[in-house]
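Subject: Interface between my chains keeps coming out wrong

I've been trying for a while to get a sensible model of this assembly. When I model each chain on its own everything looks fine, but I need the whole thing in one frame so I can look at the contacts. Pasting all components below, labels as-is. Any help appreciated, I'm running out of ideas.
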Amino acid sequence: MLRYILKRLAASVPMMLVASFAVFCLVALSGDPLARLREQPGVSAEAIAARSEALNLDQPLIVRYLGWITNVLQGNLGLSLDGEPVADKLTRAFSVTLRLVIAAAVVAILLAVVVGVLSAVRRYTVWDYSATFAAFVFFSMPVFFLAGVLKDLAIRLNEATGHVIFTTVGERGSGAVTGLLDTISDRAGHMVLPTLTLVLVTFAAWSRYQRASMLEILGADFMRTARAKGVPERSVLLRHGLRNALIPLTTIVAVDFATLVNGSIVIETVYAWNGLGRLFITSLQQGDVQLSTAWLLIAAGAVVVFNLVADIVYALLDPRIRHA
Amino acid sequence: MPEPLLLTGAPRQSRSQLRLAMRRFVRHRAAMAGTVVLVLVFGASLIGPHFTPYGFAELTEDYSQPPSAEHWMGTDAIGHDLLSQVLRASQKSIQIALVVAALSTFIGVLIGTVAGYYRGWVDTLLSRMTDLVLVVPVLAVLLAAANSISQRGGNWFLVAILIALFLWPTVALVVRSTVLSLREQDFVQAQVAIGASDVRIIVKHLIPNAVGPIAVSATLLVVTAILLESSLAFLGFGIAPPDTSLGKLVAVGQTASSSRPWLFYFPGVVLLVICLCVNFVGDGLRDAFDTRRSGGRA
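Reply #2:
Try treating it as a single job with all components included. I did that and got this:
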């Protein structure tokens, strides 16, 4: 097992290097980072030249990349436009987004497993048909529209009752919150709607995969054998069926990590969360190249780590993989 | 008359399979309903603008009007007729989606067949590349790249090409696995034996027999493309004014959803209906060709 993990780990190092170069080129080639600075009135030629120097813009691309990656490897991601280290900004936003993504992923996986398994076990019943229809609606649903609808409904509900039942703006209250319990309830209250949105758009597709893999297992020979041995039905479904039917979902969830990233960019914009998604959008709008490059690098790293974890989990669950 | 050898078996079989699939598709109620609605929406978005009294960029004297006989979907704060805008935006969304689907299906089929047919190191290389592009958080990368597109006037065709560059892996995966199993079959081996060229085998025998899986994944790409393009527009990237997109309309409407809900709900629901219908069509195609794949999303 250890050998398998090390092998996978070694394979992801060149992957990361390729990704870092791609990311650097993407940002470097996607426009003049000084365009906005030049447009602003009252910015002296010296200021522009200084900025150009700071970004090494007079150097060829490959030299700039080597300089940048050397810094990154030493833990220096550069400075944002306002002079704050990029790393600090990313760390702050990261914890905000992590809350959203982890909560949503956990709830969505549980929901997908429950809905998918029930659909498979009660195939072609009213329950199955409604779950299928709901899944169709939610994976045809643009995230920003769903987020907007939930926000609109929440605002109407708040107005109708005269109480703030759902908070719709920001990741935390504006007032000073004291005490651990208050802080937790404040953060949790702000999380309800964004998490719900992300759960709904991700669980739909996952529940379909779960249904398909459960159906396949239900038809397997070992299920019939288990029943023939006289194993109670409940135990057949859960210990023999579900355990095996969960394996494909781990891969799907890991590959769909990108969906979670996409979703959180949009959701943070709608609910005005100061997380990674919004940070990225602002960095692009302001032409903050150091920040956008570092952001994309972190995203690439997260994708690689997620796939690595998925491979390892897969191998743990299914011995056939690690001995292949 | 006797059959002229079994070497011509494959294309013949694929034609009749296609007809069978067509028949199954027509019987699929949701898929047919989806097709009809899609044709109506696309038709309306192409023909409608010739009949609506206002241009999509025209500023009327009516500001923030709720839906009425004059403005079926109401107007926005500066007097745009929303119906005209929604029609124009749907037209753009569908155009972009079709271009994306066509382009990325082409790239996907090309890479998938070459990888599956030649195997060996070519396959390893192409498959690695496919896996790499497959896990890219597309929206983030598109945002970074689209930034320069909006600086260059927001050409919709550029947006489409850009999206297509990231969506081909799903097609490539499906085509590769189909080709891998097809190339072992007797009719392909027979072609090799009579000395048919690789190009001929690929174009005449492999691709026609993989048309089912290709059609299904191309349809799913249409949804992915529409969702991506509208998300880009919603976040303020991609298509530039005065031209518009459903995502942009939803973005404008969302800021005023409590006071002028029509601005938010009309474009949003149209977008949802388009995506839902395409998914129904995809589901119908999948059942018709009976390929065992479940849907994903962007």
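Reply #3:
Confirming on my end. Residues 5-294 of chain B form a domain with the MetI-like fold fold (CATH 1.10.3720.10).
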